[in-house]
């Protein structure tokens, strides 16, 4: 009997990217071809203090192309996503164009980073976008903050545009204090949910702000939540069953510094549960994704665990995987002895995870982009340590708010100049393995995942006379005729065959 099993590669790696000076990345997206795109700012390749920087890689983290977008002053990207046409939408802030000290911008590119259009949005003072989403009608929604408009010193800014970046409506949301939006999504009911922080509706401390808007920008509900200290939220996602999960940080519920703060709400804004995760020092979290089992993975930086926690000015990347109720399944830290701070997280097709950070631990002595690809158990095979943060359910307090809603921003063109920098890729570790294969009908299994130098085959009910192993480009790298090499004959055909990558192995029951 001859059987062929096509094995999908599950790659794990850690790599850094950049040039000789500081290169910081804040946005990450997975692309339709299985690769990744990072966006941030560079001092290595720009002609001004810093410029917009994008790096595109394949699924193995190998650089395919990189771009710098330059104005006549400082420009930086905070977020990037792939669009339906396989191009990219980039958002952030610019001092090169617009009416204020910083103006929010949207930059639309084609699939290889060529500029299709770019526009700035704002007023006479600072205005920045921190998050975007492509809407179901092919347009875009962007959120951030504005000093130029609104009722307070800073208000949340939401702008909805058509496919060309022309505004359909704008909303400035806030009160007399500090109000900021950090993340926005379009929900399955065609509305919008945004999270951030507010100081307008509380006394002395910033609280997490969560709001739901309809398709026209009118508020359906707004609320704040937290404890007796200070909170902030960084990312909101719709869960697989239509709830909303929000990740951020809080110092309200423990005697330590900031800890990770995870809260789940239903579609009406009712709190379902809260969880705190952390250690004795600062643990701040920035991004969350849904997993196929309805659980979550979320990431940030930790000063409590990892190699970096031993230093006085250092931190490591931290990744927490939970079930649907927020109970931890496993936790990991990644990084070196210096500063490794994380901002991006995406889930891969094989239920692995890719984390984007910037790092001073690897690459040059300055900051470099730092990309970590793990398997489904959080393993990346270098510069990683397990950790055991405490977890508990706090007494979160939720209250409704009544922010002032206004509108109006100016829009102008932003003619960025596009250049192609010589981005350096530094491989810290790289392992190309195979997914576990199992056939339920005959009990055949093949593992582990990833496989580096050992492969285990359990033939179950099958009779196996020979084994051929091919690599991903179709080259035969192993051939074993088991009847010829095995003095145990047919008895051995029903056992596990191990160490196929090693020579002179015998088979035992």
Tell me about this structure.
The chain is an all-beta fold and 509 residues long. The protein has two domains: 10-430, YVTN repeat-like/Quinoprotein amine dehydrogenase (Methylamine Dehydrogenase, Chain H); 435-497, no CATH class. The protein has a five-stranded antiparallel sheet with strand order 26-27-28-1-35, with no helix packed on it.
Essential attributes:
5-stranded antiparallel β-sheet, mainly beta, globular, disordered C terminus, 509 residues, 2 helices, 2% helix, Methylamine Dehydrogenase, Chain H, disordered N terminus
Q: Which radius of gyration do the C-alpha atoms yield?
A: 25 Å
Tally of separate domains:
2
Query: Counting H and I runs of at least 4 residues, what is the number of helices?
Result: 2
Name the overall outline: globular
Can you describe this structure in just a few lines?
The chain has 509 residues and is mainly beta. It is built from two helices and 41 strands. Helices cover 2% and strands 52% of the residues.
List the helices and strands and how they pair.
Blueprint: E1 9-18, E2 23-30, E3 36-42, E4 51-57, E5 63-70, E6 75-82, E7 88-94, E8 103-109, E9 115-122, E10 127-134, E11 140-146, E12 155-161, E13 167-174, E14 179-186, E15 192-198, E16 207-213, E17 219-226, E18 231-238, E19 244-250, E20 259-265, E21 271-278, E22 283-290, E23 296-302, E24 316-322, E25 328-334, E26 340-347, E27 353-359, E28 368-374, E29 384-386, E30 390-392, E31 397-400, E32 404-406, E33 410-413, E34 417-419, E35 424-434, E36 437-439, E37 444-447, E38 456-458, E39 466-470, E40 476-481, H1 482-485, H2 490-493, E41 496-497
Antiparallel strand pairs: 1-28, 1-35, 2-3, 3-4, 4-5, 5-34, 6-7, 7-8, 8-9, 9-33, 10-11, 11-12, 12-13, 13-32, 14-15, 15-16, 16-17, 17-31, 18-19, 19-20, 20-21, 21-30, 22-23, 23-24, 24-25, 25-29, 26-27, 27-28, 36-37, 37-38, 38-41, 39-40
């Amino acid at each position: 009997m001859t059987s062929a099993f096509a094995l999908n590669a599950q790659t794990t790696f850690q790599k850094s990217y950049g040039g000789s000076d500081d290169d910081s990345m804040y946005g990450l997206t997975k692309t339709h071809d299985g690769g990744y795109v990072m966006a941030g700012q560079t001092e290595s390749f720009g002609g001004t203090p810093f410029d917009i920087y994008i790096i595109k890689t394949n699924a193995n983290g190998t650089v395919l192309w990189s771009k710098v977008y330059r104005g006549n002053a400082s420009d930086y990207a905070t977020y990037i996503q792939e669009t339906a046409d396989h191009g990219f939408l980039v958002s952030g802030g610019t001092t090169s164009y617009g009416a204020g000290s910083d103006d929010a911008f949207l930059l639309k590119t084609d699939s290889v980073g060529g500029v299709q259009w770019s526009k700035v949005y704002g007023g006479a003072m600072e205005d920045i976008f921190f998050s975007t989403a492509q809407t179901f009608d092919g347009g875009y929604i962007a959120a951030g903050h504005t000093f130029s408009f609104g009722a307070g010193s800073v208000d949340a800014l939401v702008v909805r545009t058509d496919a060309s970046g022309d505004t359909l409506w704008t909303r400035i949301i806030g009160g007399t204090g500090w109000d900021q939006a950090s993340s926005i999504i379009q929900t399955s009911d065609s509305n919008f949910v945004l999270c951030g922080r507010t100081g307008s509706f509380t006394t002395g401390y910033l609280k997490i702000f969560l709001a739901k808007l309809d398709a026209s920008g009118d508020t359906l509900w707004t609320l704040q939540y937290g404890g007796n200290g200070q909170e902030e939220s960084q990312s909101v996602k719709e869960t697989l069953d239509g709830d909303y999960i929000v990740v951020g940080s809080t110092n309200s519920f423990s005697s330590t510094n900031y800890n990770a703060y995870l809260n789940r709400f239903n579609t009406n804004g009712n709190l379902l549960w809260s969880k705190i995760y952390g250690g004795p020092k600062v643990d701040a979290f920035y991004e969350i994704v849904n997993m196929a089992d309805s659980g979550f993975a979320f990431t940030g930086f930790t000063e409590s665990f990892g190699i970096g926690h031993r230093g006085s000015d250092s931190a490591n990347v931290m990744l927490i995987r939970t079930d649907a109720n927020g109970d931890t399944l496993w936790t990991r830290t990644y990084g070196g002895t210096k500063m490794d701070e994380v901002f991006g997280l995406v889930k891969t097709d094989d239920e692995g995870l890719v984390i984007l950070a910037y790092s001073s631990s690897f690459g040059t002595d300055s900051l470099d982009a730092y990309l970590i690809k793990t398997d489904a158990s959080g393993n990346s095979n270098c510069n990683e340590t397990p950790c055991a943060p405490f977890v508990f359910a706090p007494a979160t307090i939720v209250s409704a708010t009544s922010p002032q809603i206004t509108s109006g921003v100016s829009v102008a063109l932003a003619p960025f100049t596009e250049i192609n920098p010589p981005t350096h890729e530094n491989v810290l570790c790289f392992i190309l393995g195979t997914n576990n294969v199992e056939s339920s009908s005959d009990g055949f299994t093949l593992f582990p995942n990833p496989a580096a130098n050992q492969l285990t085959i359990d033939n179950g009910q099958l009779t196996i006379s020979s084994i051929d192993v091919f690599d991903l480009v179709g080259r035969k790298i192993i051939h074993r005729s088991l009847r010829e090499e095995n003095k145990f004959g047919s008895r051995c055909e029903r056992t596990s065959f191990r160490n196929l990558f090693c020579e002179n192995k015998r088979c035992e029951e």
